[in-house]
């Protein structure tokens, strides 16, 4: 059997140079050569333990498919977003890549850069499609066509440092309304504790606040109308009110010094180093704060609690309405059949169960969530299971042009540099220009 050597690439330019369409490999002692198909896979992951799991999955697949060579490429989040559009229009496009779904995926499908997976998914009485949770598959389907293979589901929630809460006399279970949350922020400040780790440098981490406030005030019907440019759009009074509440939070100066320049990894580090009591973040925050903490250890798992984004009194949204990811693997138009087959293997319940057990994901594959071992991840999975409305990230769902404005506006309102009405108008203008 041919011995493979893992090619894990962390730089896009090297990836382009390495990604030749095929490689000729000589079978040991066979006296003949065969063409080996290179499968190019691109993602934003940077956690070494998670990358190792993928490398093991790829190596196991290659052992059974000696004619396939899987090449992994990982980029940091912002670099990924910056380089991907150019790669998709080049001969060096990956076979499949990480997608947040929403308007960005829809736009990519409209450019003709992606492969329509509908026929493959529905073959054999839809055997492949049935391997995933219906909501996950539906969220990656546009105009009746599937453009990405479901990978993971996730939800944004508040994480908190139990020791700091106890020191300040704050109880997480008492935070059920937005006003309760503001009071907790004030109590933490009075105790000399920085209430929230905030990341304004990348902007998108702060759009979670505006998005959730829109969801809690406006509810799904009003948001969907705004998204579809109906009714009063983003100038709806409930959406304007959400911005006013965001400004109210900003006036409390709840974040660490220099938060407007802090990247997401730095923000995770602030929380992991115990320098702020609260973080609004992803379901895998416990692992990510550990990896970004100054000592590489971060907060002990038993010192981290979580609670949902609270309701707004009088708002149309429910506490069980969730904001979060629906991620998949988008396949490029010229991907080989070998790449599609490997992707089917990668997202099978068996492999997703391994990733769940490693604390990487809340799986999209049916039945794979039983692999979850991390208590905080289990809580997130339970929250998703009870979700009354799961909304994809606004900056993804609304498409790249409107999404950028949403991120910008969220930061400006929090920083007191823009009114809620001005922000709503900017988002509405961007929506109407699409």
From TrEMBL:
The keyword Signal does not apply. InterPro entries: Bact_solute-bd_prot1 (IPR050490), SBP (IPR006059). Keywords: Periplasm. SUPFAM superfamilies: Periplasmic binding protein-like II. It comes from the Bacteria. It holds the Pfam family SBP_bac_1. It is found in: Periplasm. One of its GO terms (cellular component) is periplasmic space. Its main location: periplasm. Belongs to the bacterial solute-binding protein 1 family. PANTHER family: ARABINOSE-BINDING PROTEIN-RELATED, BLR3389 PROTEIN. This is ABC transporter substrate-binding protein.
């Amino acid at each position: 059997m041919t011995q493979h050597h893992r090619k894990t690439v962390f730089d896009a330019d090297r990836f382009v140079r390495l990604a030749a369409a095929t490689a000729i490999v000589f079978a040991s002692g066979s006296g003949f050569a065969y063409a080996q198909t290179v499968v190019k896979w691109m993602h934003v992951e940077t956690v070494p333990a998670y990358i190792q799991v993928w490398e093991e999955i790829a190596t196991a697949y290659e052992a059974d498919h000696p004619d396939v060579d899987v090449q992994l490429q990982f980029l940091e989040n912002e670099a990924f977003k910056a380089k991907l559009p150019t790669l998709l229009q080049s001969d060096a496009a990956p076979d499949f890549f990480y997608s947040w779904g929403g308007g960005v995926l829809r736009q990519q499908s409209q450019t003709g850069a992606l492969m329509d997976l509908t026929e493959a998914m529905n073959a054999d009485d839809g055997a492949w499609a049935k391997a995933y949770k219906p909501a996950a598959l539906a969220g990656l389907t546009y105009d009746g066509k599937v453009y990405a293979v479901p990978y993971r589901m996730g939800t944004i929630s508040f994480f908190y440092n139990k020791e700091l809460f106890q020191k300040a006399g704050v109880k997480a279970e008492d935070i059920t309304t937005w006003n309760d949350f503001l009071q907790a922020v004030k109590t933490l400040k009075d105790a000399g504790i920085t209430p929230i780790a905030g990341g304004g440098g990348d902007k998108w981490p702060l759009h979670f606040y505006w998005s959730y406030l829109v969801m809690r005030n406006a509810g799904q019907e009003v948001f969907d109308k705004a998204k579809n440019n109906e009714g009063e759009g983003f100038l709806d009074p409930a959406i304007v009110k959400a911005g006013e509440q965001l400004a109210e939070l900003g006036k409390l100066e709840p974040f660490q010094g220099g938060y407007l320049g802090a990247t997401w990894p730095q923000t995770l580090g602030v929380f992991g180093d115990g320098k702020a009591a609260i973080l609004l973040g992803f379901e895998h925050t416990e692992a990510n704060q550990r990896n970004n903490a100054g000592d590489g250890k971060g907060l002990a798992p038993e010192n981290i609690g979580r609670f949902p984004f609270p309701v707004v009194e009088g708002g149309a949204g429910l506490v069980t309405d969730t904001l979060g990811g629906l991620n998949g693997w988008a396949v490029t138009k010229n991907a080989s059949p070998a790449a599609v087959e490997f992707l089917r293997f990668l997202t099978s319940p068996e492999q997703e169960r391994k990733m769940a057990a490693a604390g990487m994901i809340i799986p999209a594959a049916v039945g794979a969530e039983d692999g979850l071992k991390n208590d905080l991840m289990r809580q997130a999975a339970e929250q998703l299971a009870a979700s009354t409305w799961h909304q994809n990230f606004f900056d993804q769902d609304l498409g790249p042009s409107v999404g950028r404005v949403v991120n910008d506006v969220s930061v400006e309102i929090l920083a007191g540099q823009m009114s809620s009405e001005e922000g709503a108008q900017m988002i509405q203008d961007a929506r109407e220009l699409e």
